[in-house]
């Protein structure tokens, strides 16, 4: 994939930050020494961590140069590291590993969650949130259009970039033996957006990227038009003309 | 139904209180004058409200004498009122109406939510949480067993005591015109319980009551045995022998 576009991602910053806030609210840690924001993106989640624990050493980790540039502008006194979590280990003494909306992109993520949980000191916390929306119309429809001509050949691999997430019981069995406490839940948000085009704008910043990045501009335009038409049919307007984007996310909080 | 049993309800107090905490976390009010805990039960949610807003006048409202007795023991300096929310209006100047796990029992609850939201002053908040679990195995199976002999005749009405909740879009259309801000979401908890019997104990405190209250002791025992056997099949043990009780709940936070 091309690099992430921080500006596109931040178009819905308030709505996108609520899951990070909800995740943070369930982390019981009071005075951590070191905190790592894994997949920190443009630093919106990192800012929440700094606000909650002003005395901790908070670092951000991301694979995207564009995201890291924005994060450094936002929090110039904090350290941001370009790294892929699949090949990264936290510095010794890290008490909180916070991973908001990143592990859905990491192949075999359960293996890495186990590795990170196992590496925590007693009382340390691994807090994870992932979109669990591949079975929502928003995502079913991007695959459905991609399977049609003329996009089929170029996009046949796009749907494979993200795996469907395991059920809560699978995370439970994998992580429970490594923890003293484990909470697993889903929250299904209903984001109020202006219309079908706004839903497309929203997913353009994340889930739609593997589908439109490989396309040249003319194919991209026709793909987006076909996708937008289906979105409009799947998300009918409310009485006030708005649409509700149903968005399920899974949350895991593991305390070592 | 017979009166509520506070002791049965409180068997899972920590787990039952998390939704109330999650609801409260999304109420933006900083310094309310008066706060009403509608359906206060044994006062566990009321205690959260008193802790959050120690300077507010917090009252509790419930239909159950047993619950109110426990609530008064827990918070002896606060006012608890025996009333049905369907025939109750908040005192003037009430800034927060908090209703945790009560409106699912109120017939035509959407009408009452609209009435309460309409009556708020500007900035006032109506915060509601309801179990939305009638389509979960735990509840499908209590109806399934009730439809069989010998319980059929006595329990045919039990399943009608609670309506399936409307979809988020219905609440949105009903409440949005009355509010400046409206958040609607579901959280699906996974309660870790010791086994199928613990699931039965859990629902005995709430959803199972209309099914077992009408039965004499011998029928009740056979009903519970048949129900427990089905629960055991529907909720297989995790690797450590525990079961996960999946429990969806809907949350509404309306700001006038």
Automatic annotation (TrEMBL), chains A, B:
Record's keyword annotation contains S-adenosyl-L-methionine: yes
BP GO annotations: methylation
Assigned GO CC terms: cytoplasm
Key words of the record: Cytoplasm, Methyltransferase, S-adenosyl-L-methionine, Transferase
Catalysis: reaction(s): trans-aconitate + S-adenosyl-L-methionine = (E)-3-(methoxycarbonyl)pent-2-enedioate + S-adenosyl-L-homocysteine
Keyword Nucleotide-binding: no
Taxonomic superkingdom: Bacteria
Name recorded for this polypeptide: Trans-aconitate 2-methyltransferase
Organism the protein comes from: Rhodopseudomonas palustris
Organism placement in taxonomy: Bacteria, Pseudomonadati, Pseudomonadota, Alphaproteobacteria, Hyphomicrobiales
The encoding gene: tam
